[in-house]
Amino acid sequence: MDKNTIWAVVLSTFVFVGFLFIQNKFYPTNTNQAAANQVEQTQSEDVVNTVNDSILPPVFAADIKASGESFPEENFTIKTDKVEVVLTNRGGDIVSYKLLDHLDRDTSTGVELADNVSAMNRACAIALGSASNSIINDVFGYKKLDDYSIGFYKSFTVKNSDNTDNTFTLYKTYTFKPGEYAFKLDIAVDGGENYKGLNFNGVAYTVRTSPQLGPHFNKKADRYESRQFIAYNGEKAKKIVLSDKQFKSYDKENISWAGIGGKYFVGLIIPENKSILNNTYYSSAIEKDNYANAQALVERKASLDKSIRDTYYLYLGPRNEKDLRIYNVAANNSWGLEGQRLGECLQSSGFLSWLETILKWMMEMIYKVIPNWGVSIIILTIFLKLIMFPLTKKSSLGTMKMQ
Fold first, then answer.
1. Short-list 223, 32, 15, CA closest to 111
2. For residue 215, is the peptide bond before it cis, meaning its omega torsion is within 30 degrees of 0?
3. Pair 360, 319: CB distance under 8 Å
4. If you write DSSP's letter for every residue of 127-180 in order, what string do you get?
5. How far is CA 244 from the centre of its chain?
6. How far is CA 36 from CA 110, 374, 378, in A?
7. pLDDT tens series, the chain, 403 aa
8. CA nearest to 303, candidates 112, 128, 183, 165
9. Cα(143)–Cα(150) distance, rounded to whole angstroms?
10. Cα-Cα-Cα-Cα dihedral of 303, 304, 306, 312, to 10°?
């Protein structure tokens, strides 16, 4: 490459960058315009193509009814610098979870990760018993603890095998923190008179992710997009691409965390105490508007103790190395989590993953200056060509001599 060629490349890049600066200044594009510029990832042997048409019907494992005082149904909004969350005291669940620093290209508002929410399926909803049971749909009492925390509570009565009343109070407490995509969900059960624990065929309760991980997408139009069930056992992650109309158990032992991943975002359930987990399920049942779910459901083992105190951390945010790796070192995140290896949920890994991480970081730096992934790829390619020029020059000269 001679001197004139190098000048031509530099000047062309300067003109191209100037044009894109003017375009983004006066004709801004959406920050999520990346789908058309990405290369379709080859699906691995983990892809599930079978369809289970016999979706299990939602049934209760026992005759369960809410008891105690009644409460009016209300919604509550908690906002940090990262997320805006809307919770309802019906079930004490999440009905909206928007990322404030990522815009949806269709709505020009924060990306909605709690997608496909319905009257009978919400994010962080609890079902008493197994994953096939219906969620608790009663209205809870509530207490706003501070600007970033809220608690919900409700008393229930279950019939024991000897026909006595098994009474208990269920508590759900959410805690959010500024600067975090992850939040904490504490689930507690306090037994009352004749309480004999929570045991529905070996399961106490089931907690779930959002029915579908946003943003809303059209499978036919967004051919590079998909939804994956992800489970990590402390050594490696298993990824299963979801087809429609599935409800399947992933009954592997020693699951550390599980969730659902899309191309750009991911939702994970991370129990503080890994030993409490029973089976894990994934569901892509079609429940609303002919739009399939993509949901992970985690069962908690049965408990005969007088009370239950469980803590879960849920990560709903970008599926990238930068935001996930902070949970490997306690000092890098507000929750003091360490060694979680959430980066295992990324799309690819291997012995060249270090190189992938470096290239992704370089592209993100370019993207901050020029918010267009296509341009980032072009500039990165030119930059790598210039770096490799001393090596390719010798090769090119050798080829010319051979000719």
1. 32
2. yes
3. no
4. EESSTTSPPP-SBPEEEEEETTEEEEEEEEEEE-TTS-EEEEEEEEEEE--TT-
5. 19
6. 20, 9, 15
7. 555 555 555 556 665 555 555 555 444 443 333 333 332 333 333 323 322 332 222 322 334 455 566 889 999 999 999 999 999 999 999 999 999 998 887 777 889 999 999 999 999 999 999 999 999 999 999 999 999 999 999 999 887 767 778 889 999 999 999 999 999 999 999 987 778 889 999 999 999 999 999 998 887 777 778 899 999 998 889 999 999 899 999 988 889 999 999 989 999 999 999 999 999 999 999 998 889 999 999 999 999 998 999 999 999 999 998 999 999 999 999 999 999 999 999 876 555 666 776 777 787 788 778 878 788 888 888 888 888 878 777 777 777 778 7
8. 128
9. 6
10. 0
Alpha-carbon span 313 to 270, nearest angstrom: 5
* 357 membership: H or E segment, kind and range: helix 353-369
Q: Where are the beta strands (DSSP E) in 160-283?
A: 165-175, 182-191, 198-208, 212-213, 228-232, 237-241, 247-250, 257-261, 265-271, 277-283
Asked if residue 237 lies in contact with residue 230, where contact means CB atoms within 8 angstroms, the answer is yes
Distance CA 161, CA 169 (A): 19
Closest CA relative to residue 176, chosen from 56, 50, 83, 39? 83
User: Hey, is 261 helix, strand or coil?
Assistant: strand
Residues across the chain: 403
Rounded to 5°, the CA angle 28-31-35 comes to: 120
pTM of the model: 0.72
Least Cα distance to 266 among 102, 34, 77 occurs for 102
Element (H, E) at 217: none
